[in-house]
Design brief:
By secondary structure, the protein is of the alpha+beta class. Helices cover 27% and strands 21% of the residues. The protein has a four-stranded mixed beta sheet, covered by helices on one side. The protein starts with 18 loop residues before the first strand and ends with a strand. The mean pLDDT is 90.
């Protein structure tokens, strides 16, 4: 007999819209979450992804940028402008 996973261990289904708000996730999940989300966006032929990391101390932004720079799916990335979140969000252009 298999036991159900506790709620906090169950996979979460995310809508793939090209926008991911990282505020709702634990920082420890970002290293797996961001590459997986980029792969799903690329599979759906989305041209770009908006990752909302917040302004805060900048640690999460730096981690997101490191992940983007390592991803073969990402052509380029930049901070958002005044309409897309300013320096609290990063826009990645996919191949």
């Amino acid at each position: 007999m298999s036991r159900a996973l506790p709620r906090h261990h169950r996979p979460v289904r995310l809508p793939i819209t090209g926008e991911l708000d990282l505020h709702t996730f634990r920082p420890d999940d970002v290293d797996d979450l961001v590459p997986a989300y980029l792969a799903e966006c690329a599979a759906r032929h989305l041209p770009s992804v908006r990752l909302i990391h917040g302004k805060g101390t900048g640690r999460l932004r730096l981690r997101v940028h490191a992940l983007l720079s390592q991803s073969p799916l990402v052509r380029s990335y930049r901070l958002g402008d005044e309409r897309s979140g300013s320096w609290g969000a990063t826009i990645a252009t996919l191949h």
